[in-house]
Amino acid sequence: MTQVLVLIDPGTSTVTTADLASPQLPVTDLAAHRGDGIFETVLVRVNPDTREATVVSRERHFARFHSSASALDLPEPDRKLWRQAVDRLIAEAIAANPETTEFAVRYTLSRGGDAPRGWAFTVPIEDAIVTARAEGVSAVSVDRGYDAYVGRRAPWLLLGAKTLSYAVNQAALRYAKAQGADEALFISRDGVVLEGPTANIVIRRGDHLLTPDPAAGLLAGTTQRLLFDHAGRLELKADYADLSVDDVLSADGAWLVSSVRTAVTLRALDGKSLSRDEALTREFQRIIAAG
């Protein structure tokens, strides 16, 4: 896939197409050496007949982008400007890749140096993601290093904001792969299941879908909320709950859900096999594809 980049200037409300292969970011930008910024990644589906694009959970993502900006005391993102940037990027990506039917867009707001700056670029869907959707993934549980609900007394930890500071998340994924697993699952020091490094966890227990409360110290998931909004159509109830590792192991099904992977079956945790509900996996993926 030919990737496309646009630069977004919040100060002048302008969007400019740029070369993704050329240097664009000054080393003085606070995103580069402090991770001081926010981002979102959205899935884009392209109708093969009409070539019209659908941005999955577009408004949920922007609402979280807005919330993250507030948490970091960044300027309030201009909805019209960021929508213009994403729409322009999608149009240019489709023109450059006439056969594509699916890709992702990642948009970012940095505190910058002298002034905030933004950018957005396209991300191809890797083969590993397609495989995970079809076959599921395994995970190992890892200690997150703090108790659940610590964010209530330490808001500066930014646990509910989608910041650029992903070094810990990437380290957890490398650790998981070194243990022979595909994914990590963060557990609080007091035994509460939180989230994966780049995904929320959802389990089914009977006719209930359950997911950890974002207030426990995790990112509120746009894909998880999309599924919960449609739970009634699946004759399921949806709730937030404190879950243990045993709750996950004994579930009637478990999934890691995120914008690009959509919903993938969690087939094993800490070397123990989980029950699988592939019919519900397909329903989840269909709901997410519809946006």
UniProtKB/TrEMBL annotation:
MF term (GO), any: 4-amino-4-deoxychorismate lyase activity
SUPFAM superfamilies for the chain: D-aminoacid aminotransferase-like PLP-dependent enzymes
EC category name: lyase
One Pfam family per UniProt: Aminotran_4
Enzyme Commission number(s): 4.1.3.38
Keyword annotations from UniProtKB, A to Z: Lyase
GO CC annotations on file: cytosol
GO annotation (BP), single: carboxylic acid biosynthetic process
Highest taxon, organism lineage: Bacteria
Family: Belongs to the class-IV pyridoxal-phosphate-dependent aminotransferase family.
Name listed for the protein in its UniProt record: Aminodeoxychorismate lyase
Organism (species): Brevibacterium casei
Organism lineage string: Bacteria, Bacillati, Actinomycetota, Actinomycetes, Micrococcales
